[in-house]
């Protein structure tokens, strides 16, 4: 039993809240069971189910005003549940232009009018606020219109991203749709070597399992290695399951989580509206565990004791490098960063301060530091860590996002090299497309800033050998049928046939920064024509010259990974492209597509045919001359090449519920119709 005010050992088998006796469920399914609406009494949700969810909380940040415009545009006037909605300002906090300040003031006034909780610029990063202010709590479900909502899984809260249109729908109705993904179990065994942190774990996972093993999965962490990780490390790992391709990353609730909440309760005092003694008692009494026999799509195992300081990059999270190997290459560093929702918490700042204390940042290196919140910064100041960084020559930034998304001071210039404790190092995200960006732990980033080159940590070079990992497929798929499906009923207003010439962009992991650059994300003045011009700019600057309205865009696997920006879908629509075909899609892009009436089809066989035919063409965008026709009624795709060779594939049926969204122009139009009805 856990008692407040003193530490006791949590029993191995604490009382478990189970919603299913006859139907085994994993923890993800159990949480969804609690937050799904209008389920039949005997319905136990499973992976693959489409459900209507009413999350405990929904956060939006600088995109709150675009969400508000959507909200008002669909005819809504009052937020359905103002206790459900949280607004934070955190992304463009360094921008003091009149235009940005006017937008921030509009968000503040709107939040005040609606009676929602609001946190101004400088208070901190929204995901950190969600955790430290008790909006995201264990055994619950919280969403945010940002791709790093996975962070909440670090404290046992099912966090998953939504897009702006979903957020507007939740504001208006309290709910939205979600398809429960397949669930992968990741077992952590062993113990991390001294000096390593959660960042080393997730970078190792991204590098060791870099073939889409968890793409569009929910991840549940387990194993004795979990107990060796502090809450800050868990938050870091959960945060970057997004970069790994997952939709959520959920840690179990254990003694360390309960101790974290007890410390937080002492810090906030007895009058906090959410973090209370009652909350801690409720968490302890209702700890969720997977049922015996619960289904998992995959089982992955990582031995923490085999890890060593590591670096991801350049310009890809999935390129894994032992730090001591890069140190030998003398890669000069121009800029270093300790910022973002990933690694700017108190323990991160402490690890960096230990490295730089009594030293100086190398000449020619700019080391930018920004705490995840004012609470974090105050803690770092009290223990002397913040001053140690400043004394070493670090440059402080406001509590917010900034250079992680390519905003504000310290962006990378042409030819520069940066090493960062952030979550993404996509080409062009943190500045120039002609720069190189690496990711590492706060300690390695600080060591590199002092050394003036990518550096490892002293005394850890002896941890040698390969990362120890294993994977097994635990799925029990019923297989696919070759039978011809029944005819699909076509709703009035939906096309029976979609066709066009294939334009091939042969790239896997083509991310949202490549499709719609981050520097345009918060520019609300761009017209549809402007968006069409910059579509795919970071991927291929000639894309706009090559494509034309009516083309069918075909790309590789994990298309649309990265951030939750819905402009990745709407920019493609702005070019007059009605359909995107991929080997597979990031779920967040698929969600944006459905919500904004862009058709998307998964057809890996077509990608293989195109790669075979155009393997000698090195152009990033290729007009193929091939014709594609999708017969929606028959659920068939027919492709004809320039030699009149024909291939036909059967695809899933496009049901009436999805058709109805497209007829209304997307989820926004559907919600507006529901309100008017």
UniProtKB/TrEMBL annotation:
Cofactor note: Binds 1 [4Fe-4S] cluster per subunit.
Broadest EC class assigned to this enzyme: lyase
Keywords, comma-separated and alphabetical: Amino-acid biosynthesis, Iron, Iron-sulfur, Lyase, Lysine biosynthesis, Metal-binding, Mitochondrion, Transit peptide
GO BP, one annotated term: lysine biosynthetic process via aminoadipic acid
Principal subcellular localization: mitochondrion
Annotated Pfam families: Aconitase (PF00330), Aconitase_C (PF00694)
Catalytic function, reaction form: (2R,3S)-homoisocitrate = cis-homoaconitate + H2O
Cellular localization per UniProt: Mitochondrion
Gene3D superfamilies: Aconitase, domain 3, Aconitase, domain 4
Aconitase A/isopropylmalate dehydratase small subunit swivel domain residues: 486-605
PROSITE patterns attached to this UniProt entry: ACONITASE_1, ACONITASE_2
Gene Ontology, cellular component aspect: mitochondrial matrix
GO MF annotation terms: 4 iron, 4 sulfur cluster binding; homoaconitate hydratase activity; metal ion binding
EC number from the UniProt entry: 4.2.1.36
Family, similarity comment: Belongs to the aconitase/IPM isomerase family.
Role, per record: Catalyzes the reversible hydration of cis-homoaconitate to (2R,3S)-homoisocitrate, a step in the alpha-aminoadipate pathway for lysine biosynthesis.
The protein, known as: Homoaconitase, mitochondrial
Gene source species: Schizosaccharomyces japonicus (strain yFS275 / FY16936) (Fission yeast)
Gene symbol of the encoding locus: lys2
């Amino acid at each position: 039993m856990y008692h407040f005010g003193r530490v006791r050992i949590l029993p191995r088998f604490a009382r478990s809240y189970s919603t299913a006796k006859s139907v085994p469920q994993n923890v993800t399914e159990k949480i969804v069971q609690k937050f799904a609406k209008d389920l039949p009494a005997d319905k136990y949700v499973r992976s693959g189910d489409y459900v209507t969810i009413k999350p405990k909380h929904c956060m939006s940040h600088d995109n709150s005003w675009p969400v508000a415009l959507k909200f008002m545009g669909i005819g809504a006037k009052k937020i359905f549940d103002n206790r459900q909605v949280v607004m934070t300002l955190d992304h463009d906090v360094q921008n003091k232009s009149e235009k940005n300040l006017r937008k921030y003031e509009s968000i503040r006034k709107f939040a005040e009018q609606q009676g929602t909780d609001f946190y101004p610029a400088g208070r901190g990063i929204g995901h950190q606020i969600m955790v430290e202010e008790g909006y995201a709590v264990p055994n619950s479900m919280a969403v945010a219109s940002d791709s790093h909502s996975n962070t909440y899984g670090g404290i046992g809260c099912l966090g998953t991203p939504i897009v702006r249109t979903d957020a507007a729908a939740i504001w208006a109705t309290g709910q939205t749709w979600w398809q429960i993904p397949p669930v992968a179990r990741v077992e952590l065994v062993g113990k991390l070597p001294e000096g390593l942190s959660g960042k080393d774990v997730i970078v190792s996972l991204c590098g060791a399992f870099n073939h889409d093993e968890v793409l569009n999965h929910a991840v549940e962490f387990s194993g004795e290695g979990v107990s060796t990780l502090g809450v800050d490390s868990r938050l870091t790992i959960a945060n970057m399951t997004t970069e790994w391709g997952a939709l959520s990353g959920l840690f179990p609730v254990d003694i360390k989580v309960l101790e974290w909440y007890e410390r937080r309760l002492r810090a906030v005092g007895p009058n906090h509206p959410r973090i209370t003694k009652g909350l801690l008692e409720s968490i302890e009494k209702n700890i969720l565990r997977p049922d015996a026999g619960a289904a998992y799509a995959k089982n992955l195992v990582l031995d923490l004791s085999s890890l060593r300081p590591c670096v991801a990059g350049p310009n890809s999270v999935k390129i894994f490098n032992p730090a001591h190997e890069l140190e030998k290459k003398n890669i000069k560093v121009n800029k270093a960063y300790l910022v973002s929702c990933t690694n700017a918490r108190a323990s991160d700042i402490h690890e960096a301060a230990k490295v730089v204390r009594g030293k100086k940042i190398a000449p020619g290196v700019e080391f930018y530091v920004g705490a995840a919140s004012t609470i974090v910064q105050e803690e770092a100041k009290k223990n002397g860590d913040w001053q140690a960084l400043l004394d070493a020559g670090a440059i402080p930034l406001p509590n917010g996002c900034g250079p992680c998304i390519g905003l504000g001071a310290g962006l990378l210039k042409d030819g520069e090299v940066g090493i960062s404790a952030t979550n993404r190092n996509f080409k062009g995200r943190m500045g120039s497309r002609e720069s190189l960006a690496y990711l590492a732990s706060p300690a390695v980033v600080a060591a590199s800033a002092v050394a003036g080159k990518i550096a490892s940590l002293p005394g850890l070079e002896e941890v040698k050998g390969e990362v120890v990992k294993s994977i097994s497929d635990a799925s029990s798929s019923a297989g696919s049928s070759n039978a011809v499906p029944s005819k699909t009923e076509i709703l009035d207003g939906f096309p029976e046939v979609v066709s066009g010439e294939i334009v091939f962009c042969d790239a896997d992991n083509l991310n949202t920064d490549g499709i719609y650059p981050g520097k345009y994300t918060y520019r609300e003045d761009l017209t549809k024509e402007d968006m069409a011009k910059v579509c795919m700019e970071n991927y291929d600057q000639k894309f706009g010259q090559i494509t034309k309205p009516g083309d069918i865009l075909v790309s590789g696997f994990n298309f649309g990974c990265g951030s939750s920006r819905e402009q990745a879908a709407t920019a493609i629509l702005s070019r007059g492209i009605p359909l995107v075909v991929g080997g597979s899609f990031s779920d967040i892009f698929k969600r944006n597509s459905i919500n904004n009436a862009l058709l998307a089809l998964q057809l890996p066989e077509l990608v293989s045919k195109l790669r075979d035919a155009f393997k000698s063409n090195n152009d990033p965008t290729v007009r193929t001359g091939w014709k594609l026709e999708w017969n929606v009624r028959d659920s068939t795709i027919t492709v004809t090449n320039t030699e009149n060779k024909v291939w036909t594939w059967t695809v899933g049926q496009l049901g009436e519920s999805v058709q109805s969204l497209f007829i209304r122009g997307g989820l926004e139009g559907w919600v507006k119709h529901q309100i008017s009805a």
